[in-house]
Description:
- The structure is a homodimer of 337-residue chains.
- Chain A has 337 residues and is α/β, with parallel strands linked by helices.
- Chain A folds into 3 domains: 4-47, lambda repressor-like DNA-binding domains (434 Repressor (Amino-terminal Domain), Orthogonal Bundle); 61-158 and 294-320, Rossmann fold; 160-291, Response regulator (Rossmann fold, 3-Layer(aba) Sandwich), CATH 3.40.50.2300.
- Helices cover 47% and strands 15% of the residues of chain A.
- The first copy, chain A, has 14 helices and 12 strands.
- Chain A has a 6-stranded parallel beta sheet with strand order 2-1-3-4-5-11, sandwiched between helices. A 6-stranded mixed beta sheet of chain A has the order 7-6-8-9-10-12, with helices on both faces.
- At the A-B interface, helix 4, strand 1, helix 5, strand 2 and helix 6 of A face helix 4, strand 1, helix 5, strand 2 and helix 6 of B.
- Strand 2 of chain A pairs antiparallel with strand 2 (94-99) of chain B.
Amino acid sequence: MVTLAEVAQHAGVSASTVSYVLSGKRSISANTRQRVERSIRELGYHPNAGARALASSKSNIIALMVPLRTDMYVPVMMEIAIAVATSARAHGYDVLLLTGEEGPDAVRRVAGSGLADGMILMDVELDDERLPLLRATDQPSVLIGLPADTSGLTCVDLDFRATGALCVEHLAKQGHQDIAVIGEAPAVYERHTGFAERTLDGLRTRSRELGVRLLHRPCEGGYDAMAVTLARILDERPDTSGLIVQNESAVEPLLALLRQQGRAVPEDVSVVAICPDQVAMQASVRLTSVAIPAQEMGRHAVDQLVAKLEGRGSDEVVLLAPELTVRGSTGPAPSRS
Amino acid sequence: MVTLAEVAQHAGVSASTVSYVLSGKRSISANTRQRVERSIRELGYHPNAGARALASSKSNIIALMVPLRTDMYVPVMMEIAIAVATSARAHGYDVLLLTGEEGPDAVRRVAGSGLADGMILMDVELDDERLPLLRATDQPSVLIGLPADTSGLTCVDLDFRATGALCVEHLAKQGHQDIAVIGEAPAVYERHTGFAERTLDGLRTRSRELGVRLLHRPCEGGYDAMAVTLARILDERPDTSGLIVQNESAVEPLLALLRQQGRAVPEDVSVVAICPDQVAMQASVRLTSVAIPAQEMGRHAVDQLVAKLEGRGSDEVVLLAPELTVRGSTGPAPSRS
DNA sequence: ATAGGTTGTCGAAGCGCTTCGATGCGGATT
DNA sequence: AATCCGCATCGAAGCGCTTCGACAACCTAT
């Protein structure tokens, strides 16, 4: 293993000079810099991460806490995680992957050990048990998702309230009077996941304002669960002509069922999805949808965190504006029979 | 921040004693140990990761390189990643998330800087460009997936050759004579991804042995691509009665199309999927499938790597035996019209 | 009673890096 | 010619931990 000292000797300068060449924190003559850089290349030197962390008390690592559950909104999570890793690298940081498993202890461990300089939390619940710790340790952090109380926290999220409103508006504008929402699995609501409740709030508020009827039903993923849920909805509100789906793994089953029952999309029923663009475009019907901008969320979160770590940056809540893309699954409401 | 020295002072012992209490590398009297442990608790001491890494030249971190592509076999990747993170924690390791983006350089960076003690590579190609480096740096590592040349490497994977064989056998045993394989996207084959080619090999070899006809067609995910692919298959081999799908995002579209065309599963067509159990069970037809044991693969990889890091462990190729679960999507071949 | 072996603890020497103050030097300012 | 300043470099002091050899203290076998 090559050390700083060896590079210094090889280049005929002192260790500190090499260090300054590397960090750029003091001016170095062009001549010396080149000699040092050459030695670094020739010896294949790589600074030792541990030593660096110890001496500078900065690890250049960002911790990312992802939910343990592998069953829900997986693609979104994955996309965010990858976006985080990629943007972090662009800022010179590496990413440490923490699963929800350890829970709040992970926060303590990471903050205490100086393993990471800051952390990004995903899948934040409205009243998340990690938040008190986060506030207490003054560990620089950014949440992806919105808790109930955002004071003293930096958060990044899609504006799900506006998302809900947007979906209702779109359907209402086309004359739909009876709208049903097929939501995430019941467990998601029971955990008081921010995005689910906020979407619902936006949906309800806007539909009240616009005077349309709204029915919300949670739904597990998969075909059978969807079949039951759809039957219940149509039983309860036979005039339902607009459907809003916020559950990736319910999308395709829903379309299959509608087809099977002879309900044409969008002639008989309009469907709006809240899902990644890819899902909306790969479905058996091109779905009108509000995209979940996973990449952008990940990138924003990193940008915010890095800003904090560099002393700039503040406790801000960034809500990304939703965008509804009209594709083939929505159209005018059918005239009442 | 609390340091070892402070704990030592608080407990009235020397720093080295505290260190030995923590590591258990020398015997300590019960009395002293308790005093030290009490001080640790009272002061809320957490060892500093950087200092530890520097002094011991072990970071207790495992690097996990995941493919950058977010479009393919995502759930499997995610499940593996989470399994890796979870098992690693159980062994006292944290996980550093690297994306494929950096390519081989990531290997150099991690190995050189001592950031991680070892690494796990996913999405290994048959002739992966990271392998030469891996062999050169003698960085302890484990691959998930099989390259062409496994000499000097430790690999963990599902036995995809056996998987392919198993699928063919199952269908052949039910009398199917014309079998079509709907594979991963063409890009996957072009990259020479090990698992895809091996599966194909298993499928072909076994079908030759059993004297059944086999047609293989790569297929992008999504409904449209599937429609085209299916049409081509049925055009070319109208007698096809057995389908084998190895592409998660083609499963549901396939079922929808078959339904739409009035082909009953399993009466007219039998379908075997190679996919995670969850996908097979959530589909609109309970799919007979060979599971991709993502969790197990992740766990095995970590176990192997940890064994290597502790000096035990060898360069072994672990192939997990495939298991075919019969569900509702396969049955006897229809008698020829 | 004495040599020999355990057991439990301590002190000190690093691990490889960053960073601060000091220093030498040439050029600009009086 | 004396003074001041900025630039480029160096030396040394740590950062918080692990680990090795040393050493008392005690126990056992002779």
